């Protein structure tokens, strides 16, 4: 314990108070000027650790030094100490120091995207702010606003950096505007050969448009350009593979989409074997390989997906691993999580799947797939009604994304034989109501459900809808196909007049095939309602090959019984021909094959026949006789001498009662012997060790 300090007493009256001696503090260590000189050297050398160290030394001497605090924050960000940098920023209250931009960047890096956007709102929209804002919007999935920020950079600030051009192309691709990428690249004056990153993004645009063959060529070119550029920069080989990992994964995906599955599996396995440092590429390769395998190697697939996800309990939202959460797009995150749930369903781990779907619905509340997965669980448990109610409730709350849910409901209802419910579910998808596939499905479902009139109404409404697109050639072909189906449907269900009207419209078609079918349909439909018209159209039909000079009136006058006689004669003639053919076709004699004997066997001297019981175990054969031994004898009792006498008595009894004339008839019976008095039990003796 230290000594207690004495209290300061007031000085005595009339005497002056003694003055305390002033202590002169001698400076220790380098001065602030020296530290700033050291800091300047560290900044020029990009020695960020030393910058942090020297900045701390300056702040120890001058806590409100603006330059030192600013240098420390920037150095921590450069060292990827983002959380520590944010902590320093939030604890700093220095006049004249504004670290709002650095704070927004730190919030962006740790994934707090809404907070980062709020932090940027009060700043001037200069080049750095717009660039960071565009990156935050890209990561948050606000593609249109992201593109708008990049366009402001190019138009107002005349930024021409290649990395920004690469970023805006990427925003167009993931934002659903891949078709505009070629014109955008012309505006930006960039070409796929400008760099491997821009070539990669251009290939991704082709993938989005479904042009996989062209995308493969562009990806191979991007890989080659990137390899050459990185080798020129003296980048180590391992780092080259890490930098080109996204291109390799995209190339494997293109192989998969082109149907070259074995090649794609080999490419994915090669990527996973290398274990690239780029975590998103590794995650995408893992997910795509699992999707290729399907229900094979479920245990291995589950094990791989576990490494990509972090989840503490069912009450929390799903979260990807730390190195993936802020680097994957929303589409990629959804694919990883949904595939994990499908694996649990395929593995029949229903409890885990139920818990997982609960977390999925919290993480992706507006996505229909968690609801569909929950319904799949209920169907597995034979709770079809609950599953349909769950999906119907979701579709009612999310009308904008309810289309997929209604399709699933319709499929489940049709599989269960409830065709009218399936049709009702499909009718709620108004955006696809008049598409050819939907029309055909609705007609088939309503016909199977027994409401033919409503099925006909579906066709009539579709014809009215497509009549408004008569000017377009593509739409005209769709209308003609619907008219053909409508006419055939009406003809099949005896709606002759209505069918004839539709066929009359088809006669105006420019296609000779359509006109020919319509002509046949007109003859068939008018034959019942207007025979004169049917005769007129019949004259336009081309003559039948091989049929000439046929008198139709004479054919009609032939009595029915004569037709039956002719048919009978034809049958008799056919039978006679068959009998004649049967006589000519005598059955061929089968050639007898010579028997195959074992090696060394002489059929002339076969010897004794083999034992029929040779396949049975030895103990189960009738000829088996067990060896006589002492194993089944009665236990020894009494003294040693009495045992010998007992044996001799038994033997004599057996001799005196020898076998009689009937002794061979009974098997297993006890031989009668005179009673032998039991010997008295001997005195207790201890057993010798080792004897039993």
Describe this structure in words.
- This protein is mainly alpha-helical.
- Among the domains are: 32-97, Serine Threonine Protein Phosphatase 5, Tetratricopeptide repeat (Alpha Horseshoe), CATH 1.25.40; 294-365, no CATH class.
- 62% of the residues lie in helices and 1% in strands.
- It is built from 33 helices and 2 strands.
- The chain has helices at 32-44, 48-61, 66-78, 82-90, 100-109, 113-121, 127-140, 143-155, 162-174, 181-188, 196-208, 212-232, 237-243, 245-257, 261-274, 279-293, 298-306, 322-325, 330-346, 350-363, 368-380, 384-397, 403-415, 419-427, 436-448, 452-466, 473-492, 496-506, 512-529, 531-539, 552-557, 560-584, 640-656; strands at residues 309-310, 319-320.
- A two-stranded antiparallel sheet has the order 1-2.
- Helix 8 (143-155) packs antiparallel against helix 9 (162-174).
- It is extended.
- This is Signal recognition particle subunit SRP72.
- GO terms for molecular function: 7S RNA binding.
- Belongs to the SRP72 family.
């Amino acid at each position: 314990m230290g000594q207690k300090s004495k209290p300061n007493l007031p000085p005595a009256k009339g005497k002056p108070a003694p003055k305390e001696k002033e202590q002169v503090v001698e400076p220790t260590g380098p001065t602030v000027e020296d530290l700033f000189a050291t800091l300047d050297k560290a900044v020029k050398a990009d020695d960020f650790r030393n910058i942090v160290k020297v900045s701390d030394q300056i702040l120890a001497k001058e806590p409100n030094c603006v330059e030192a605090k600013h240098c420390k924050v920037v150095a921590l960000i450069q060292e990827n100490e983002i959380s520590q940098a944010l902590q320093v920023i939030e604890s700093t209250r220095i006049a004249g120091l504004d670290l709002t931009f650095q704070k927004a960047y730190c919030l962006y890096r740790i994934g707090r995207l809404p907070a980062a956007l709020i932090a940027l709102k009060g700043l001037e929209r200069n080049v750095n702010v717009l660039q960071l804002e565009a990156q935050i919007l890209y990561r948050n999935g606000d593609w249109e606003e992201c593109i708008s920020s990049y366009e402001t950079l190019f138009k107002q600030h005349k930024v021409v950096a290649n990395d920004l051009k690469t970023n805006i192309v990427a925003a167009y691709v993931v934002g659903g505007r891949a078709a505009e990428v070629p014109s955008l690249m012309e505006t930006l004056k960039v070409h796929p050969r400008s760099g491997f990153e821009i070539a990669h993004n251009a290939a991704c645009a082709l993938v989005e448009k479904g042009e996989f063959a062209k995308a493969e060529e562009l990806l191979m070119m991007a890989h080659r350009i990137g390899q050459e550029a990185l080798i020129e920069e003296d980048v180590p080989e391992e780092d080259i593979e890490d930098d080109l990992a996204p291109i390799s994964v995209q190339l494997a995906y293109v192989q998969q989409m082109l149907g070259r599955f074995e090649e794609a599996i080999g490419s994915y396995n090669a990527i996973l074997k290398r274990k690239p440092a780029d975590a998103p590429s590794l995650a995408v390769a893992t997910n795509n390989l699992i999707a290729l395998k399907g229900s094979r190697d479920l245990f291995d697939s589950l094990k791989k997906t576990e490494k990509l996800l972090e989840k503490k309990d069912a009450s929390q939202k799903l979260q990807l691993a730390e190195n993936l959460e802020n680097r994957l797009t929303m589409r990629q995150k959804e694919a990883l999580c949904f595939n994990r749930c499908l694996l649990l369903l395929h593995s029949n781990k229903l409890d885990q799947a139920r818990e997982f779907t609960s977390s999925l619905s919290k993480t992706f509340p507006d996505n229909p797939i968690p609801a569909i997965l929950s319904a799949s669980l209920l169907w597995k448990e034979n709770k079809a009604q609950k599953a349909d109610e769950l999906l119907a409730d979701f579709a009612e709350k999310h009308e904008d994304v309810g289309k997929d849910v209604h399709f699933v409901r319709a499929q489940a209802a049709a599989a269960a034989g409830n065709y009218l419910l399936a049709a009702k579910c499909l009718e709620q998808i108004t955006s696809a109501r008049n598409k050819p596939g939907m029309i055909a499905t609705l007609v088939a479902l309503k016909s199977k459900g027994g409401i033919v009139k409503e099925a006909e109404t579906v066709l009539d409404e579709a014809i009215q809808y497509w009549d408004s697109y008569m000017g377009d050639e593509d739409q005209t072909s769709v209308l003609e196909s619907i008219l053909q189906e409508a006419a055939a449907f009406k003809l099949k269900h005896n709606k002759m007049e209505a069918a004839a009207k539709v066929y009359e419209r088809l006669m105006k078609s420019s296609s000779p095939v359509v006109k020919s079918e319509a002509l046949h349909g007109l003859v068939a439909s008018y034959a019942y309602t207007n025979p004169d018209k049917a005769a007129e159209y019949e004259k336009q039909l081309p003559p039948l090959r091989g049929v000439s000079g046929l008198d139709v009136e004479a054919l009609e006058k032939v009595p029915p019984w004569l037709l039956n006689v002719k048919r009978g004669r034809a049958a008799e003639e056919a039978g006679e021909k068959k009998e004649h053919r049967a006589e000519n076709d005598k059955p061929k004699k089968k050639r007898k094959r010579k028997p195959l004997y074992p090696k060394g066997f002489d059929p002339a001297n076969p010897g004794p026949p083999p034992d029929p019981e040779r396949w049975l175990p030895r103990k189960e054969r009738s000829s088996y006789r067990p060896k006589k031994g002492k194993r089944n004898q009665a236990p020894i009792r009494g003294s040693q001498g009495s045992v010998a006498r007992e044996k001799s008595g038994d033997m004599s009894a057996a001799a005196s009662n020898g076998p009689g004339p009937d002794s061979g008839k009974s098997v297993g019976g006890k031989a009668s012997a005179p009673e032998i008095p039991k010997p008295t039990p001997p005195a207790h003796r201890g057993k010798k060790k080792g004897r039993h």
